[in-house]
Amino acid sequence: MGIELFQNNRDAYEATLSLFRETNKTAVILATNTDKSFIEVYLAEDQNDKNIYWLPLSEFIFKTQIENPSPMINGEKAENYNFPFSQTRLDE
User: Fold this and answer.
1) Given this model, what pLDDT does residue 89 score?
2) Is 28 exposed, middle or buried (0-12, 13-18, 19+ CB in 10 A)?
3) pLDDT at 90
4) Distance of alpha carbon 39 from alpha carbon 9, whole angstroms
5) How far is CA 21 from CA 7, 30, 84, in A?
6) Structure confidence at residue 18 (pLDDT)
7) How far apart are CA 72 and CA 69, in angstroms?
8) Using an 8 Å Cβ cutoff, are 56 and 62 in contact?
9) What's the CA gap between 78 and 23, in Å, rounded?
10) Helices (DSSP H) in the chain: which residue ranges?
11) What is the Cα–Cα distance from 75 to 3, expressed in whole angstroms?
């Protein structure tokens, strides 16, 4: 895996993964600045057979996220990590 999680993120990731396994759906809901995006990227890398949709609360957060590296699987961009907004919409 490309990302190492801190213990508090690992705990949140395990809870997220548990719910994901039970329902095939999950959400990462944590306080601001708790590295939720790392958990989401880790999930996309770890669960590469599942589609992961990242739903930011604002276009500002979305823009900052797409500037960061995408999740990688075996050195390739993770195709299962999806953004709901189109770049065209952001450029308008």
Assistant:
1) 45
2) buried
3) 44
4) 7
5) 21, 20, 23
6) 93
7) 8
8) yes
9) 22
10) 7-23, 36-46, 59-66, 87-91
11) 13
The answer to whether the beta carbons of residues 9 and 39 sit under 8 Å apart is: yes
Interacting residues of 28 by C-beta distance below 8 A, sequence separation 6+:
12, 16, 36, 39, 40, 43
Amino acid residing at 77: K
Low-confidence ranges of the chain (pLDDT < 50): 87-92
- Amino acid identity of residue 29, one-letter, is I
87 residue type, one letter: Q
Q: Which amino acid is at 51?
A: N
Query: Residue with structure tokens 């308008």?
Result: 92
Assigned token pair, 73: 């699987």
User: What are the residues facing 77 on neighbouring strands?
Assistant: 72
Question: Whats the size of the chain, residue-wise?
Answer: 92
Q: Which two tokens stand for residue 59?
A: 């276009």
- Six token digits for residue 81: 């990590």
